[in-house]
Structures are given as C-alpha cells and as structure tokens.
Known about the structure:
The protein is of the alpha/beta class. The chain has a domain at 3-44 and 102-148 and 385-460 and 514-530: FAD/NAD(P)-binding domain, CATH 3.50.50.60. The chain has helices at 19-30, 47-50, 71-76, 86-99, 189-199, 225-233, 235-244, 263-276, 293-310, 314-320, 338-341, 388-391, 403-406, 440-460, 470-485, 515-527; strands at residues 9-15, 35-38, 106-107, 112-118, 123-128, 133-141, 164-166, 181-185, 204-209, 215-217, 333-335, 347-351, 357-360, 364-367, 371-373, 376-379, 394-396, 425-427, 465-468, 533-536. Strands 1, 2, 3, 4, 5, 6, 17 and 18 form an eight-stranded mixed beta sheet that branches. Strand 8 (181-185), helix 5 and strand 9 form a beta-alpha-beta unit. Bound molecules: 3-acetylpyridine adenine dinucleotide.
Amino acid sequence: MSDTEHPAVIDAVVVGAGLAGLYQLYRLRERGARVRVLEAGDDVGGTWYWNRYPGARCDIESMAYSYSFSSELEQEWEWSERYAGQPELLRYIRHVADRFGLRRHITFGTSVTRAVYDSRTHTWTVTTDGGEEVTARFVVMATGCLSRASVPDLPGLDDYRGPVLHTGRWPHEEVDFTGRRVAVIGTGSSGIQAIPVIAGQAAEVTVFQRTPNFSFPARNRPIGRRESAERKANYAEFRAWLRATPVGIPRPLPERGALEVTAREREAAYQSAWDAGVLGGIQASFNDTLTNRQANDLAAEFVRAKIRQIVDDPETAAALCPTGFPLGTKRPCLDTDYYATFNLPHVRLVDLRRSPLVSLTERGVRTTGAEYEADAVVLATGFDAMTGALRAVDIRGRDGAALNEVWAAGPRNHLGLLTAGFPNLFTVTGPLSPSVLSNMLISIEQHVDWITDCIGHLGDHGLTEIDATVEAQDAWVRHVAELAAGTLYPEAASWYQGANIPGKPRVFMPYLGGVGAYREECDAVAAAGYRGFTLSRLPDAHPTA
Ligand code: N01
C-alpha cells in the first residue's frame, strides 16, 4: 500500500503533531503500521507552534529537553543556547519531521471533534471538523497537557478596541509593540517570560498580577561547541540517569532535609540553586521542601529576600513576593530579568489583590482603583490543563459512554494511559501520569514506547482490544491521590488541580511518584501480561500492526 492511500480501516490515528505525536508516528511507522496524524495547526510543533509570544523559551535544558530515540539526531543537532527559545525549538521539531519523512502521514489544519468506539469491530471512528471520518484500530491522543488556551470570561472583553493577544495562541506574524502601551494580565510562566521582552520594546507596560509566583533566574547562555561535544560523548549515560530521576531534569538529588543542616549550610544550598538557574532547583535543595511546611517556609523566605533585594520600590517588591501557598506547589518559573524589569520607569505593577480587575473598557483595563489605557492587551492567562484538550473532543467509548461524563468528577484511568470503557484509546502524558511534573520529553518517549510495545504485543498475539479494568483504574486513581495528599501540593489553588478553570473539579492530576518509579511500574505491568488490563480478540481478526 502506498503511503498516501487511506485504506478503509487503518491501524492508528494519532491526534496532534507536537513532540508526542511525531514520535508516536515515527515508532508506529517503524513497525510498518498504517497511521494518520491529524493536527489542528498548519505545521508540526504543538506547544512550540502555538506559543510564539515574545520570550517564549523552554525552561528545561535543551540537551535534556530533546529526543533521545535517535543517536544520529542527537549527535547532529547543535543547540545554540542552554535554554532554547521557541524559534529554535520549532526549527528542531521541523527538522525531525523532515529527517524522518513524517510529514506525508500528517493532515494539517484539521481538528478532531468526535471519536466513537465500535465494540463489534474493535475500531474507533474519528470525525474531523472538515467532516471526514477515519476508522482505525487504535487512537493515540497526543494532544498535549497545556494546549487548550484559557481565556477568562472578563467583562468588557468585546468592548476593548485594541488587539487582545493570548500567549498560547500568539499570531504568526510579527507583533511590534514599539511605542505602544501594553497591558499584560497574568504572571505565570508565560507572563514572566514575556514581560521583560515586551518591556524591552514597548513605551509602557502595565502588569496586572492576581497571584505573584516564585521565579528564579534562568542563567541562560550560549552552549559552546566544547560543552556540547562533552555532553554528546556521554549522551546515553546522561539520558539513562535522567530517566531514573524524580522529574527527569538535570539537577542534584538531595539526601537531607532543610532542618537537618545549619542555617549557614541551608543558605549556601539555596544560593547555589539560585546561581545554577535550574527549574525547581530551590525546592530540590532539600528533600523535604514539598512535604514539610517549615522547610518550605525557609526556601520561600530565601526567594522573597531575593525579590526585595532586586526590586527597588519596597511596595512593588512586597506585591511581587509570593505568599499564601507553599513554594513549588504552583509551577515555579525560570526567568531572565523578570523582577529587575519592575525597576524600569515605564513598567508598573497593578496588584489585583488590592484593587481587583473590574472589566476591560474600550480603552484599556479597569480595576476598582483606576482605568489603565492600553494599545494592546496580552492575556497570559494559561490553559485548561491536562484534561482540556481531551474533553474538547466528544469521545464515546463502549455502549456510547461519554468520556466527559465518566470524567465529570475528574480524570479516571489506569496508569494515565487508558480509561476503562474506552479501549484502544491511549493518552500520551495523560492526567494521572508524571506528565507536567516531569521533563515532557522523558515522559513522552516513555509513554510512546509503552504504547507502541502494547500495540505490538496485541498484534503479535492476535489480539484486537485492550481495556483497563475498573478495579485497576480505581486503585490507580486512589494511589495518585494518596501521593498528592502526602505533600504540600494540595495547599495551592493551582492548575495542577484544575483550580484555574471555573467549575473544573479539584483533582490533583499529575502522578507524583517520579518518572523512574513510574517507568518501573509501567514496565512491570507490561511484563506481567498487562496486569490491570483486559486483552481480547475478535473471532475473525487479522491484526497487522
Ligand atoms: O499560565 P498559568 P501560563 N484575572 O496558569 C492569571 C507551562 N509553560 O501560560 O494564579 C487576572 O501558570 C493567573 O492568576 P492566578 C508551564 O507548565 C512552560 O503562564 O490564577 N489574572 C496566573 O497569574 C506553566 O505553568 C513554559 O491568580 C488571571 C496567570 O494568569 C504552564 O505552561 C513557558 C485571570 C496564568 O498563569 C502555564 O503557564 C510557559 C483573571 N481572570 C508556560 N485568569 C516553559 O518554559 C488567569 N489569571 C516550558
């Protein structure tokens, strides 16, 4: 069969052509499977296709946040910076698509609206926004954890006369803020990356902050040839080490608690993390930061002291100091000159906790304190994380059951991979897996490898269906919740538990056991003949993948 033909029933539909979808396509093609990838964007890249806001950059080191499946790719690609910017990441992903001949299997500009399982044939029929129907034995949702932009329901949004730009849906054409007054709403990772860069261009920047965040200097720098060559000489060992660490990020693994050392030693450890510029470095200075409130307070106070040191105006510094939630329990940020940006004469901070946002007006943003005129409004307001992109598709499993109803009180699945009653539908880095609390590349490759092996196992044994058992699923959901309950994470109203979306159930969604332990569990499940899953076959099945 030619690559461009679309047979009546193909082996797999992969939804999304970001880092996860591309690797899934590569692995299934390697097995000779007939695969189609359906992608909403007009190019590959996923997150790095959509998030083009000024300053967008990965906050995990490029040489760790990259594919490891091909040593040729690893060796030939040269990263220019320690933390790659969005344009370079997109170039890399495009290179991967071209190098491995993946594009011809991808249909761009196409969103999946519906997916319906047929228990009689063990197939899924996927419907697109263009009305096309594709029937496949497996569906892999590679739709990303942070892909559904959240636009808050702000009164007056339609009254505002200037452009409103969401960081997660940034225009593809150049946005020039020179001489403009820009209002930025939101101070999470996106806002914190964008604000210093926008301030470098705009005539005036007003930052509307509801919750201050913990942010640490990235200490980004070019990667020299020598540094790159040294890493490449030991790339396999480096990757193997990352896979066994808690989150797959190159940073030290602490053996002591913050209260087991002297104040001087503690300060030195925090300072060393601050100087290193590694995501989560401060919280990872000691092994109890996320479980012991006293230890956490010490780390948080270290960061607040840094903010007060950097920011000249004491009132602005106080407003920028995060309080009310433990350090690390909302996603920490890495920045370049974020706090120092507030020393610039044309940048001001509006503390929405003191004067809440009332509405957008024709000319700008109104709070209970004043109206701020702006020529453009940037919404750095985040995403309907982890479940948003999955729930946006009308997914119907066995007997017509709707995933949205099954997940009404929060996501349920086994290992974050398959939901009972929705056989043969896999989620890459789905909720209840390490996902957003890990280096996504580590988790993506682990999931895709597991899914590919699973599909291969079914094919090798003449099986046509895999479904999670309700018992295994219930136990996994409980396990993920118990892990979270043993930490300080539930104390923060974070997007990790859906708190940023009105009406979303509060369930802590990422698995906290670490990528190493998680991989071991997934491998053990597979080695035990897919324990916790039911495998079956149609009487007249002729599996091919
Ligand atoms: O979104 P966020 P993000 N009125 O949800 C505020 C990843 N990422 O796009 O905290 C006023 O973190 C909201 O306030 P509050 C990373 O995992 C990675 O910045 O709800 N404010 C908050 O300040 C990250 O965590 C990179 O009180 C409103 C902000 O908007 C995740 O994406 C780079 C509001 C949203 O912050 C999401 O980050 C960028 C309202 N009505 C992002 N609604 C990398 O470098 C919301 N806010 C890899």
